């Protein structure tokens, strides 16, 4: 057996060597086939790396060859890739070629084969394909292990927007595998029973920890996943630029693109490559890099900046001349020298940028924050610049920067120095004005001057010199030195004329003098005040030009009128000026400003020309006048407001508005209807004359109610709405009544007082308790005219024996049907016999009531009281309360006994009754006068009250019957 | 109430007497040994606090990992997390643990977990997450110190770490990023389980080491004082 094996080997070797010989010698032309093909895989990059060589080449022979490579997937017949790879081949050179698979190599078995052909013009006879190599199989799956499930590719890194293919490899046929992308189930394509492929298109960036993809089996505890790292698109560097500051080092800068946005940042590298020198440097920083300038005076540079990360490489280019990219260093040793009041010199040094280069330097001079001078100077090494026309005693800042004069690239940084110019004597005379007052025979002059502006002062003003020159005694000079910052002084002078010189002084010198004269005559002539209207821009004042020599005009005003320190302001104007606009931020609306315009004589004496007054902005009146009402009549009343100070209002009062409310629907003549702010309607009188301080409201209605309200108005409007004053016009006759009634009441009162005082006398005179017949004028009248026979009986002649008590009942009316006669009650005073049948001595006073009706007939008589009636009447008298009753009864009865008589009142004594019997109407039972004397109270009873029984109603005719 | 001078002196004397006897109150006697009770209580409180703190941290971190790790029902197999100390234990085994073993297991577990957590901290991308993780690590370090304190109080030695056995976070590529995320998930889950278990452990210890009732009374008095 061993012998047979040895024989077989020997035979095969002999056959092989024979074949080799034949191919070298016999089979012309010779085919060059790829040999020793090896295939390796790079799972991470999903690459197949092919490695082969061509052996049949002669020594030192180089041929251009083309290799055709076929790649099949799963089975050899399924060719998925064919590519021709051309290269130059040497004998035994190892050739390499790579192919990147879209599908992870673990997902399927891949096979590779290739063939070659000479593609060289030198040997055109060899242009034919060699035989295919055998299929080289790449099967990663078999080496995966025994896990039940795999997901590929593992932790792949792609750029945003890429397409990615994912697969799972399952070892179990039974299990259903489901895969999820970020928790969302994916649906794939079954490559074979165990492998499923998922195509993800245009993958987005989700988070820095990557996109999670996992698969799990329905049964069992199997879960496998991968993280797909999706980076943001790697951007190319921007603003790539290089420059040098010292011609030794180039500084290149750029703006890198945005980050990849991943948790594990993709390493980015920046490489700078210069093509002329062929040098390359790896930059340490991601946004700048330094490049050492070669000492061989290379002028041109062509840079390529390459930015690279795992996924992408990006490049930018820059070609430039070194001298065109010089950014000089900031100037140094900068000084400001020889600083005078108006000039200064600036010196500096620059860093050289080459032997023959010139720098252009720019000098800027700043004053009060603004550029006031700008100058360019060419400089080699040392720079110098003279700054002229400077202001004395002023702070300045000078700065310098430089750039390449031949090829401007960039200015250097500024180098700055501050300096202050020296002082100079003040250039202008101070602006002086005065205020002259006369106090106790002296002239008190207050001098004011305005501080010099910075430009005029030329330094710090230390003091002001005031020189008083007495014009009357020219040799007399008086000097006052007033330290700054005073802006005025007060001088007490005698009546002499003075000329005052004011100068401002700083450390260097004195200003020109300002001259103003004070004359002995104050010259305060009366000048009419004129009104001016102010605007937002100020007051526009104009005046008449003065004949004669006027050196100028001065307008003077107070910015705070009403204030003791009125803040006097003035404005100097030229001799040809006759108008000016006075404006000030201090002007406030509603404040009256007074302006005085002075002319300045050649002797520098100011004299008042005009006075103006006005408001910068008029306002409505601030308050209303206190109105007094007088002369109120039925038809008018007068209003007056004389105390109202119209001048203190925040505007010129142009007149007054009087509002009158009344019940009348129509307004009186001279007024018009107006609607108030509260929508009430009233009548308005307009008083156009602001000086008119009284007003008569006329044509009113008597006994009517009115309300009035007076308010001033300016050009802007009326004063504030105030309360209406109420007034009621009196009645038309009331005053007449008052004129008559008052004296009457007074007279009556007087009479009453007199009557009261003389009541006793009056009583006796008019209504005595016991009338004196002798004094009765009535009686005397009757006696004299009608019945001369009547005599008066003296009471003394009558002996009373009974008093008749008359019971008077006022207001008691007897019915007409009451016929029962009542009889007077008599009180027997004398002890008489019980029998009264016969006539006995009886004195009866009966005071007849004055009854106009009854007085037509005079009757007198009494009815004797029957003895039967006596006890009862006595009994009645014992009871006091019954007395009036009884009296009344009897009184009425007695009235009933009064016959109708003649006209007028009769006064008849009861004792004269027999004489009464002369009358025709005597009672049927006349009393017996001889026995009874009666006295009755007299009283007058009006007709209505006296309603005696039928007797009184009977007319005479009936009695006659 | 009318306080007279005599009353004030009486109160002052009483106060002085109380102050004089203060050192005699055991709970206030700083030189005396209060026993492991307070430190066990403190440790227990700390575990509860950490439980609460971890709840918010885990929420943030799992969102940072993305789905499916932040899904509430995600329960992957414990594949790559075998090196993590396992908190789950059979109930009988847990009951049978003695105090020393119980404390040792806790100490060792948290030592390991703290190392893993620090690895997590280094990986975290956002500053806020790093802050939260650092804060939690500090708290966990405090818990470890507290457990060590309890062990010292009970006279148990601290377990010595084996040289070279310091657990570290496995580097990414070999392990796979998805598996790494799984490990992170399990780390947080295991930590949560450990904190829960520790609360039970310290509660049990607390009960066991509780002083007799008389001592409790005195303790309470001292507190009231």
Query: Mean pLDDT of chain B, as a whole number?
Result: 74
| Helix and strand run of chain B | HHHHHHHH
Helix content of chain A: 10-25%
- Spans of chain A of at least 5 consecutive residues whose pLDDT stays below 50 are 1-28, 810-824, 829-961
Largest sheet of chain A: 7 strands, mixed
Coarse shape of chain B: globular
The total count of helices of chain B amounts to 8
Task: Report the biggest beta sheet of chain B as strand number plus sense, adding barrel if it closes.
Answer: none
**Assembly type of the shown chains?**
heterodimer
Which protein chains make the most extensive interface, counting residues with beta carbons within 8 Å of the other chain's beta carbons?
A: A-B, 23 and 19 residues
Tally of separate helices of chain A: 10
Helix/strand structural class of chain A:
mainly beta
Strand content of chain B: under 5%
Report the uncertain regions of chain B: 1-7, 14-19, 21-32, 170-174, 214-225
Helix content of chain B: 55-70%
Strand tally of chain A, please? 58
Write the layout of secondary structure elements.
The complex is a heterodimer of chains A (961) and B (225).
Chain A: H1 2-25, E1 35-42, E2 47-53, E3 62-73, E4 79-90, E5 94-100, E6 110-118, E7 136-138, E8 149-152, E9 157-159, E10 164-170, E11 177-181, E12 184-186, E13 189-192, E14 195-200, E15 211-217, E16 223-231, E17 238-244, E18 249-255, E19 269-274, E20 279-282, E21 288-292, E22 300-308, E23 313-321, E24 332-337, E25 344-349, E26 359-367, E27 370-379, E28 382-387, E29 395-404, E30 415-420, E31 431-439, E32 442-450, H2 454-457, E33 461-470, E34 477-483, E35 488-493, E36 498-506, E37 514-518, E38 529-535, E39 538-542, E40 550-558, E41 568-573, E42 579-582, E43 592-601, E44 606-615, E45 628-630, E46 637-640, E47 655-662, E48 671-675, E49 681-687, E50 694-697, E51 705-713, E52 725-728, H3 734-757, H4 759-766, H5 777-785, E53 802-805, E54 825-828, E55 844-845, E56 849-851, H6 870-878, H7 882-896, H8 913-916, E57 933-934, E58 939-941, H9 950-953, H10 956-960
Parallel strand pairs in A: 9-16, 38-44, 55-57, 56-58
Antiparallel strand pairs in A: 1-2, 2-5, 3-4, 3-6, 6-7, 8-10, 10-14, 11-12, 11-15, 13-14, 15-16, 17-18, 18-21, 19-20, 19-22, 22-23, 24-25, 25-28, 26-27, 26-29, 29-30, 31-32, 32-35, 33-34, 33-36, 36-37, 38-39, 39-42, 40-41, 40-43, 43-44, 45-46, 46-50, 47-49, 47-51, 48-49, 51-52, 53-54
Chain B: H1 5-21, H2 37-65, H3 91-96, H4 99-123, H5 127-154, H6 172-175, H7 177-208, H8 213-224
Helix pairs in contact in B: 2-5, 2-7, 4-5, 4-7
